[in-house]
Structures are given as structure tokens and as C-alpha cells.
Design goal:
Chain lengths: 288, 345
């Protein structure tokens, strides 16, 4: 039996309160009240008084790791992290964007999160589907036992069965719908480049107008910049106002990466990111 | 004279309208309904709450070509792109969105400098407004009643439509609408009962409550002026903001654009493309200086523009409470709550 959302919320408040009270962190990244129950907001508590404003329910889907790089290096931060979010924390540590010692990770073991827009359960179809945080200092509930029913790559079956032309047509159709609001990259914990390549105009990598050329340039490049780094939280796709299934592409790249290098992003703090690490025995498939 | 048809015969009405010009109407798409040009009259779908994207793109497309040129060639060879202006019927627009056109008119035609692209498209369009159903509660993100907009206000439309169960009642509001309605054979005359229902709904729409807070233009403009230097307030309300462009791109009253030269091989196009004050490079100057490097400065700009600068310069608040920004914000930032908090600050 998994810990209830209400209980996790209580535990979150207690642990966050302790951390702030003892001065172990200067802020805790968590969730707070939004305009209604279904729409909680990422929230920062800086004092004991702020802790009361925290909430946790099935709609607290945002990946808070996205905010870590926003604060000056060295800031002591407590962060509430569900399974995929904790993988993002690991990946950011691997990439030296944040130091392990500066973080207190409040791990949230959970299943049954829901997408507020569709009310669908969030599972291995659109995310990695893990239940328990991979890394944490305090666990805010009991570990969820059992394995996810789906592998995170099962959803790829349909795209993988497509021939090259069909696949291109599929992606062209999907990406043609993009309005270039950049919510996907801004919601992504791994998209911290400033400036992002697509915003540069010297050289100019891609057009600004939401048409096939620029859209393909933006997305295909972004997909590849996320190779071996995307931790499959699904946040980009949930952020997208026009519901482009970006997760399908990210999952495909992640799967290939895992097959080639035998490691998934953000699963172990001792590893180097797959594309940064060189090992003699690495697969050469990428060159074929 | 009030006309009527049924929802079942909507495609006949749509087909009739397509004979008058391009028909742009709500169709069901992957993530929700959107206004699209109709090629199959059966695709028009009035079973929607409100469209995902606002109808502003009908008059102010995301991308608009101005000039075509060849790189390396003489400027004399560059050609102006004539905008594609056709008689258009814009069908099924909610009252808050109809109101947004009036606000956008200020910028595109009302300041003395007329934007011919907007103006000509506006002129060529006949707008069929479509009442929210006052018997269905408003979406929790909406707050148009705060801005004095009714759920069934016919003002600003050429024809206004109210759904009565399986019937669709259509009332001409402007002479343009009157003329068009009289030319549609698929419509029949409505009864006195229908008229009563129509008038009753318009009246009920005026007291229909979405989320509500009392906002008066002058005091709120002043409030945001006073809050400008209150970085703590802005940092707090923008703490979750990702600084993306979702809220501004879906907004019916955001009108910022960039002028871009886009070239493919040697064929160049000078075009305007929507831009967003929430983008980091929106205020990036050629020198490299950026006056708004922080997220809170950008969110402050977005909200103060709508709720303060706009009032000072042009009178009305530049927001119609359609709720799109709130519904589409990936982290659930809600402009209504921020305005509310500002009033209490
Ligand atoms: S690319 Fe998408 S799924 Fe992958 S880490 Fe970024 S937001 Fe998460
Ligand atoms: S969030 Fe969706 S619409 Fe916005 S840039 Fe990304 S893919 Fe395009
Ligand atoms: S308010 Fe929401 S939609 Fe707007 S820029 Fe911030 S995160 Fe993006
Ligand atoms: S600011 Fe938000 S509520 Fe106001 S008009 Fe724009 S999208 Fe609608």
C-alpha cells in the first residue's frame, strides 16, 4: 500500500519544516496552492511560516529539478522529488550543474499521478513509469513495491513499426502543429542552455516562424541535445499546449542510448553521462 | 429578425456560409478545438467550451510575409507580398474573444498608424459570436465577468448565436450581419418563444459569474505602478514561472511581433512572426545589454502591460479574462490570482 497523498503532504511539511528550522537549507522547492486543487504550483518555502502553503496531490506533476539551476551555486536547497524528478537531480549532479552536498532530497514514492489536462494516469506510456525516487535523503512515504506493468519503451512499438517515410510523415505532421512557444524546453530540467541554440542569430540555426523547416530544426536538434540526458519525466509533453507527443522521440533516443551504452540517464550518481564518457568497449553502432 | 436552424443542420449553414467566402470555424483537433479554415462543412463543431488558441490569428497570423527578395540581388528586385484578403466568415467566437478584437483594434488601427494587414482582414470579416451556455458553470480559469464581459454579450459581433438545446438561434447585430443572414436559405424564422429565450439568455449572461474580483481600471493601473519597484512581490509571484511563451501565444490580446528575414538558399522573405515578452531575448539589445534578464522582470512586464500601462495609454485593460493563459501555463500560473494579490498588496 502506497502512502496516501495527504500523508505525503504532511510528511513533506514536517521534513521541510525541520530542514528550514535547523538552517540546513535556505529554501525548499515543493508544491503550493494554485488557483484550484487541480492546479498546484511549484512553490518555494524559505521560512517555517511558508511551509503551511505546501500541498501534495495527484496533480503535482511538475518536475522541480528544473528550478535547481536558477539559484546561485552553493545555495542549500531542499527539493521534493518523485521518481523521474530524482533522476533529473542525478543527471544535473553528473553534469556538475548542482552539487550533491548542496541538496537535501525529499524523495516521494508515488503512483497514480494524473495529468490535469486529460485526467489520465501518468505512467510508463509518457514517462519512465518508476514509482520510487532513485536518490533521496529522506523518503516521504513507504516505498512502492512491485514493478511497473509497462516497460518505458513499450509505447514505442507503433512508431518503430513504421517505415522510414511513414515515420517522417508522422513526425512532420506532429511537429508542424508546434507553435514555438518553447514551453517544452523551458519545462525541461535538462534544457538549461543560455542561450538555447535556436535563439541564436549569429549563426542562425533555425527560423523563428512556426513552419516545417524551423520546427524540424528546433525539435530534431533538441531531441539530440537530450540524447543520453533525458530522464523521461514527460514534462516537455505535458507542458506542450498543443499536446505534441515529444516523449515518443525522447524515449526512442533514450532506448537506443541504453542499448548502445548500457546505461539510462540519471540512474546512478557515480556514472558519467553516456555521451560524455568514453569507454573502449563502447558500441560503434552510432557510426554505422 | 431572429433566425434559427438546428445543430444537426449545422453543416448546411456552414455550406451556405462557404459560398459567401472563406469560413473559419472551430474544429476538433488533437489537443482541443481551434479555428481553422473549413473545407468540409461537416467539420464545423460547436461542441466546445472555448478554443485552445485564440482567434487572433485570423487577423494577425503567427507568420505574415511582407517582402520577398533574392540575397545578393538589387533591392529594386524585391517585391511586396500582397496580403491574401478574402471575404471571411469567422464563426463561433465567444463573447470575451469578440471583445479582444476591439482591444486589438486600438493597436492595429486606433493609434493613427493603420496596419493594413489587420485592417483589411477585419473589414473583410463577418463575425458570428457564440454565447457561452449560462447553464454550464464557467471553466475555473475564466474570469471574463471581472472585466465586465457577459457570457452572452452580442456587442461586437455581426451575428450573434445562442444555442437552445438542439436549436441554434441567430440574431443579426450589425447591418453586415443582417444582410448575410437574409441570404442564407437554410435558416428559418424563429418563434416569439425563441426570441424570449434569446433575450433572456443575453440578460442572464450579464449576471453570469465566472471567478470574480472587482477590478477598476484606474485603481489597478495605479496599484501596478506602485508595485513596479517591489521586487519581492514580483519575485514571489514569478517564482514558478518558466518564462516560456505559452501564455502570450494563446492570449487573444497579446500582439507583440518580431520582424525576421528568413532565407532558404538565396530566396529571402521579410516577415513578421509573433514574439513574446516572456522570451529571454525579447529585450536583448544589439549591444548585448538586456534590460530584463530576470524572470520576474518579464512577468512584471506582461502583467503590468495588460493591467497598467495599457490603461494609462489607451484606457481599457488589455485582458478579456478568457482564461487561456492560465489553462495553458505548464506550471499553473494564474494571472487572475496575481492581479488579486496585487490589489491586496
Ligand atoms: S526531454 Fe522531456 S522527458 Fe526528457 S528530461 Fe526533458 S522534460 Fe523530461
Ligand atoms: S511546447 Fe509544444 S508548441 Fe511549444 S515549442 Fe514545444 S512542441 Fe512546440
Ligand atoms: S506564466 Fe506560465 S505560460 Fe507564461 S511564461 Fe510563465 S510559465 Fe510560461
Ligand atoms: S491575459 Fe490571459 S485571460 Fe487575459 S486575455 Fe490574455 S489569455 Fe485571456
Amino acid at each position: 500500500m502506497a502512502t496516501s497523498f495527504k500523508q505525503i503532504e504532511e510528511n513533506l511539511k514536517t521534513e521541510a519544516g525541520k530542514l528550514l528550522d535547523a538552517g540546513k537549507v535556505s529554501m525548499v522547492l515543493a508544491y503550493g496552492r494554485g488557483y484550484d486543487e487541480k492546479h498546484p504550483l511549484p512553490y518555494v518555502a524559505r521560512s517555517l511560516a511558508d511551509v503551511d502553503g505546501m500541498v501534495f496531490n495527484e496533480y503535482c506533476t511538475a518536475n522541480l529539478a528544473r528550478y535547481l539551476v536558477r539559484y546561485p551555486r552553493g545555495t542549500k536547497i531542499g527539493i521534493a522529488a518523485k521518481a523521474a524528478d530524482s533522476r533529473a537531480v542525478i543527471q544535473l549532479i553528473q553534469e556538475d550543474k548542482v552539487k550533491r552536498d548542496d541538496l537535501v532530497i525529499l524523495g516521494i514514492p508515488v503512483y497514480g499521478m494524473k495529468n490535469a489536462k486529460t485526467d489520465e494516469a501518468i505512467d510508463a506510456k509518457t514517462t519512465c513509469g518508476l514509482y520510487n525516487p532513485v536518490i533521496y535523503d529522506v523518503l516521504l512515504g513507504e516505498e512502492v513495491h512491485g514493478q511497473p506493468v509497462l516497460s518505458p519503451y513499450e509505447v514505442l512499438e507503433k512508431v518503430e513499426a513504421m517505415g522510414q517515410d511513414e515515420r517522417f510523415a508522422f513526425w512532420k505532421k506532429e511537429l508542424d502543429r508546434c507553435i514555438r512557444c518553447y514551453a517544452c524546453r523551458k519545462a525541461c530540467p535538462m534544457c538549461y542552455c543560455d542561450p538555447c541554440f535556436i535563439d541564436q542569430n549569429k549563426p542562425k540555426w533555425g527560423e523563428k516562424s512556426p513552419e516545417t523547416g524551423g520546427n524540424l530544426m528546433y525539435h530534431l536538434t533538441r531531441f539530440h541535445h537530450l540524447a543520453g540526458r533525458c530522464i523521461d519525466c514527460g514534462e516537455c509533453s505535458r507542458a506542450c499546449p498543443v499536446d505534441i507527443p515529444l516523449y515518443l522521440f525522447h524515449k526512442k533516443v533514450a532506448k537506443e542510448c541504453e542499448e548502445m551504452f548500457g546505461q539510462a540517464a540519471g540512474m546512478s550518481i557515480d556514472e558519467k553521462p553516456a555521451l560524455i564518457n568514453f569507454r573502449v568497449e563502447d558500441s560503434d553502432k552510432i557510426l554505422e | 429578425m431572429l433566425k434559427k436552424t438546428t445543430v444537426q443542420k449545422l453543416s448546411d449553414l456552414a455550406a451556405g456560409l462557404m459560398e459567401k467566402g472563406a469560413l473559419i470555424a472551430p474544429v476538433r483537433e488533437e489537443a482541443g478545438h481551434n479555428f481553422r479554415e473549413i473545407s468540409d462543412p461537416a467539420a464545423v463543431d460547436l461542441d466546445f467550451y472555448n478554443t485552445l488558441l485564440s482567434p487572433k490569428s485570423v487577423f494577425f497570423p503567427h507568420t505574415e510575409d511582407f517582402i520577398r527578395y533574392k540575397t545578393g540581388a538589387s533591392i529594386a528586385e524585391a517585391v511586396c507580398v500582397e496580403p491574401d484578403i478574402r471575404p471571411t466568415v469567422l464563426f463561433g467566437v465567444r463573447p470575451c474573444d469578440v471583445k479582444s478584437f476591439e482591444i486589438m483594434d486600438i493597436h492595429f488601427t486606433g493609434t493613427g498608424k493603420v496596419d493594413p494587414y489587420w485592417a483589411k482582414r477585419r473589414e473583410a470579416a463577418t463575425i458570428f459570436g457564440y454565447a457561452f451556455d449560462p447553464n454550464t458553470p464557467a471553466d475555473p480559469a475564466d474570469f471574463y465577468s471581472t472585466l465586465g464581459i457577459g457570457a452572452a454579450d452580442p456587442e461586437g459581433s455581426d451575428v450573434f448565436m445562442i444555442r437552445k438545446d438542439q436549436d441554434l438561434l441567430l440574431q443579426a447585430v450589425s447591418p453586415k450581419g443582417e444582410k448575410l443572414l437574409s441570404e442564407l436559405p437554410s435558416l428559418s424564422d424563429a418563434s416569439a418563444d425563441d426570441q424570449k429565450y434569446f433575450d433572456g439568455t443575453v440578460a442572464a449572461g450579464r449576471t453570469f459569474k465566472t471567478r470574480f474580483t472587482c477590478v477598476e481600471a484606474e485603481p489597478i493601473a495605479k496599484k501596478f505602478e506602485d508595485l513596479f519597484h517591489n521586487a519581492a512581490f514580483w519575485e514571489k509571484v514569478s517564482e514558478a514561472c518558466l518564462s516560456c511563451g505559452a501564455c502570450t501565444f494563446v492570449c487573444p490580446t497579446c500582439y507583440c511581433f518580431d520582424i525576421c528575414d528568413e532565407t532558404l538558399f538565396s530566396q529571402g522573405t521579410r516577415r513578421r512572426v509573433w514574439d513574446s515578452c516572456m522570451f529571454t531575448d525579447f529585450t536583448l539589445e544589439a549591444s548585448g545589454h538586456n534590460p530584463r534578464t530576470k524572470v520576474y522582470q518579464r512577468l512584471r512586464q506582461k502583467i503590468s502591460h495588460k493591467y497598467s500601462y495599457h490603461i494609462r495609454k489607451y484606457g481599457p485593460i488589455s485582458c478579456v479574462g478568457c482564461g487561456r493563459c492560465t489553462r495553458n501555463c505548464p506550471v499553473n500560473i494564474d494571472i487572475f490570482s496575481i492581479v488579486n494579490e496585487a490589489m491586496k498588496a
